[in-house]
Design the sequence.
């Protein structure tokens, strides 16, 4: 990247900013950090889900220092690309400023999974894999 090239600014948005947007932020920071500045936020932040931290740590990405932040207007003004990861965030996101591209990655929230711990973690891993696929495609553009 030459000194004149700026990193693309990506904002991931979910309702709770606890699972999907946190994983997406972690992946893009780890895999594309030389080309992207990345943040995540929630319309109703709930703190990072410990299962999100655990499944990302399994693959060598530490998201434990990330924060669960409320969406602020200046975040939308900062972004070049807004990616919503749940229908609620897509439907309730404020108007995006002109020039900000908006995309939607529809992903189920594994934090609402029921069952034994192992079954729940399988769902978190599945979500992690889907997010990695989306992030890989974004980086490949």
Sequence:
């Amino acid at each position: 990247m030459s000194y004149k090239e700026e990193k693309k600014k990506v904002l991931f948005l979910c309702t709770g900013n606890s699972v999907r947007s946190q994983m997406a932020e972690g992946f893009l920071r780890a895999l594309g950090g030389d080309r992207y500045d990345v943040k995540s936020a929630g319309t109703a932040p709930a703190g990072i889900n410990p299962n999100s931290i655990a499944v990302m740590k399994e693959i060598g990405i530490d998201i434990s220092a990330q924060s669960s932040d409320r969406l602020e207007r200046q975040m939308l003004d900062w972004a070049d690309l807004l990616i919503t990861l749940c229908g609620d965030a897509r439907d309730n996101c404020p108007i995006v400023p002109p020039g900000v591209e908006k995309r939607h990655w529809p992903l189920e929230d594994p934090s609402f999974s029921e069952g034994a711990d192992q079954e729940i973690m399988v769902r978190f891993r599945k979500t992690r894999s889907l997010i990695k696929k989306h992030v890989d495609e974004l980086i490949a553009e």
Q: What stands out?
A: Strands lie at 8-14, 36-42, 81-84, 101-104. Residues 49 and 132 are 18 Å apart (CA to CA). The chain has a mean pLDDT of 92.
